[in-house]
Amino acid sequence: MNRRMQRVLGMLLALFSLTMLPPALVDLYYDEGQWPAFVAGFLVVLVVGVVLWWGARHATESLRLRDGFFVTALFWIGLGVAGAVPLLLVEAVHLGVADAIFESFSGLTTTGATVLSGLDSLPHSILYYRQQLQWLGGMGIIVLAVAVLPLLGVGGMSLYKAETPGPVKDNKITPRIAETAKALWIIYLGLTVVCALGYWAAGMTLFDAIGHSYSTVAIGGFSTHDASTGFFDSPLIELIAIVFMFLAGANFTLHFVAWRTRSFGHYLRDPEFRLYAIGLLVTALGVALMLDLMEVYPDPEESFMHGLFMVVSIATTTGFATDDFSAWPGVLPILLLLTSFVGACAYSTGGGMKVIRWLLLYKQARREIVQLIHPRAVLLVKLDGVAIPATVLTAVWGFFSAYLVVFGAIMLMVMATGVDHLTAFSTTAACLNNLGPGLGDAAANYADMNANAKWLLVLAMLFGRLEIFTLLVLFTPTFWRR
Amino acid sequence: MDLKVAQRIVGLLLMGFAVTLTLPLAFSLYDRDGLYIEWVDSMLITAALGLMLWYTARGGRDQLRLREAYVVVTGFWFSVSLAGALPFFLTMAPFISFTDAVFESTSGLTTTGATVLSSLDALPRSILFYRHLLQWFGGMGVVLLGIAVLPLLGVGGMALYAAETPGPVKDAKLAPRIGQTARSLWVVYLGLTVLCAGAYWGLGMSGFDAVGHALSTISTGGFSSHDASFDYFQSAAIELAATVFMLASGLNFALHYTAWWRGKPKVFLEDPETKLYFRLFWIVTAFSIFGLIVTSQETPLLAARHALFTVSSVITSTGFTTVNFSLWPGMLPALLIFLSMIGGCGGSTAGGMKCMRFYLIFKQLRWEVVKVIHPTALPAVMISGRKVDNQIVRSVWGFFFVYATVYVIIMLGLLATGLDEVSAFSAVAATINNLGPGLGEVASSFASVSDAGKWLSAFAMVLGRLEIFTILVLLMPEFWRA
Questions:
Q1: pLDDT tens digits, one per residue of A278-296
Q2: In A, which residues are within 8 Å of B149 by CB distance?
Q3: Which end of chain A has fewer CB atoms within 10 angstroms, the N or the C?
Q4: Minimal CA–CA distance to A313: which of A193, A372, A376, A229?
């Protein structure tokens, strides 16, 4: 780590320490006596940040492209560790280091896997803190990289590029990054506010409404209740959640255009959005039909609501639940889990491989088969009538294989720690796709996983959130050679 | 498209297949097992079917066009798999269902080696020998396919072998190429089989077992005439011989030809695919030995013996067993399943994706990572110092994606037929990689799988054997339009 990175990291940590004050205020309001932990966390992270910054305050040159990868990884790891500090200090839960780190990373990467149980009886401050971590994580995904880091003197575009290898990296939405970021931030905030109001009006308490809107718009999945969304037992609340998960899983630049031009036609013209919407609908109907045929629920409406909610929640990688889907019969649990590999759209807060990549993978695979029929033809892969350059296509293939290789490797290592096959498969998928809930032993929560497995899964969350390559390049000798 | 040529060839091949049934018939007559009428019936019916196909398509063009090869190859494997079921159905009635007969026949012909039969030791020798024979002929077909047909069609990057591999065939026309390959390779194939049988016999197998097991070893099929498979013989020497011949059969037969017939054994040392194949073998073997010793499941010597045999059986997708590896600790069973996905070398009788594809994917992936670090670098995948054609690399990526997708779809299908997750996941690997044994419910036999599951598994075997694309091409509207 060189001095310019140290300076940026110090500033980020100092800024991040401020986010530990709202939970302290929540605690004072509810008078549950947990505020010292959050204030202590604030002070520890602030001091560490200031010390880091002070040691490198004279390094004024800005970051370079190659720093970007390291800084991006460092930034997530640093914040993830800092976020664990209050969780370690809080007396109401006795979390070990692995558990606290797991919970913090799961929050910041908007995964939503939890090691906590008995959520309903935990102090409000801790619950609020978890929800807020996810919201900040979601912000980190779409906003920090484009808005805050350029202000700190980081080469903005280079970092944005570092976070999203693949087809979207050259897709500049407006030349002024800071301005765009501000716009996206307003959209993110706006969605959160409207979502919270919706929840509140539909009958949630204000606390739950704000908390759940945080984790909905961030595609996170943390809840303040063990039963997740099922706790509220309200079709209206479920519908609101479905709408906002769907919106948060869509490309935010589409929302940006809608906000700018006050029109909605471009949603339907976007091939990724079309596939995303149709895919979700078809899968939801299929799942609902299977639930009804296998008589899991007494009436078709209930099958439909559960099917729709769970498909949207899992496929966008949110991870809210209205029921324990791991107990659904036959193919359904695995089918749902696999939809999270597709995930949400690019430029959203969702995880997975992203719809656009699957669209390109499908198109190119089809081209390869047609090429066998017409061996001499020059066939192009087109999106929206525009030919996709070969370099973008190979980048997508590379991403796909790297994703599967990382998935397989982490899964095998999780198995080696003694976890059974189904649990290892599902938890690795749930963490790499930033989904949250797994199957088998991790269906309810991750408390029973061993510490080594938790560290590996934290790694999986990071890999997923940083779109594999950002982290993968750090493992290559080429990167460290100058 | 003129399907008459294809139909005529399939008819001829069926008639040829009928002739081979004289061998089990001879056993039946010699042993007086009372099944000779059934063998004669099977022979006549198969011959009649073949004659009918041939007769109704006589006349017309002689030349087989490249595109029609897809129909011939697919038609051959499906029709012979069905025809091959006839003897099982007739000789074992009423103890075998039609589904089981087709499963067993397909498993034999695709050299998979998964079985639905039990109490093998008590079966008549004519049936046991027929099973071995099916695999041996299947293996010969696979070698022909891999060396003569697929490289010419360019399926999934196989065009690489057309240019790169030093071998007996250079002709660019299909029919002469097949003839040439068959003439030069059957000696190598037969020679290896004779050597293997001699070794087994010399080490203490009965003459029948030696020949039968040699047939299933060289074809990397995996059928045994004993329920206990190779554990029946209780001989480390036999296991070692099997290890050597399985590994040899996982190598490119075109290289075998050059090495032994032309007297240039050095080709193996220069071939990058062979090198990767052995490297993978040693790594996984060492890992397995380590795992077995660390968990103190076995003494070091026994661990080495079992690991050597099992890993060679899995990497070549043979499927012989001395121990039930599904009961091995931790990650080992899953690691072996992954290994079967990589499989042996192209142009061998082994299944899986083939080392060469894996090698190309790995190389390209490394370049993609480098490209992220040095965006202006112009990556090129090199093999033995020569640049690999872009089209081939693309084709391999396409193959990998389609393989993964088809894998998942078949797995979902098996889950829907009621298999549990681990069994379904491994059953697909066992069938699409032409391996044989899986984990969980399908660890030793597919007998308990539902009928729908068996049909799906049989389909997966053919799909894997024909490298997926060969069949998918037929499903494209473009194929029939052109």
A1: 999 999 999 999 999 998 9
A2: none
A3: C
A4: A229
Residue B349 amino acid letter? T
> Mind listing the pLDDT tens digit for each residue in A331-367?
999 999 999 999 998 878 888 998 988 999 999 999 9
Q: Residue B223: what pLDDT?
A: 93
Tell me how far apart the terminal alpha carbons of chain A are, to the nearest angstrom.
14
- Residue B239 to residue B225: CA distance in whole angstroms: 15
Q: How far is CA B200 from the centre of its chain?
A: 22
A/B interface, count of CB pairs below 8 Å: 140
Q: Do A454 and A446 meet the contact criterion of CB atoms below 8 Å apart?
A: yes
Encode pLDDT of B309-356 as tens digits: 999 999 999 999 999 999 898 899 999 999 999 999 988 999 999 998
Place of tokens 């043979």: B318
A368 and B398 in contact by Cβ < 8 A?
yes
- Tell me which of A431-440, A470-479, B86-95 is least confident: A470-479
The tokens describing A143, both together, are 């906003």
Of the candidates A9, A76, A143, the one whose C-alpha atom is nearest the C-alpha of residue A462 is A76
Asked if B67 and B479 count as a contact pair (C-beta separation under 8 A), the reply is yes
Pairing of strands A386-387, A382-383: antiparallel
- ipTM of model: 0.90
Q: Which residues 6+ apart lie within 8 Å of A303 measured at CB?
A: A288, A289, A291, A292, A296, A297
Determine the distance from the C-alpha atom of residue B296 to the mean position of all C-alpha atoms in its chain, rounded to a whole number: 34
Whether B390 contacts chain A with CB within 8 A = yes
* A28 in contact with chain B, both atoms CB, cutoff 8 A: no
Give yes or no for A369 touching B (CB within 8 A).
yes
Check whether B301 has a pLDDT greater than 70: yes
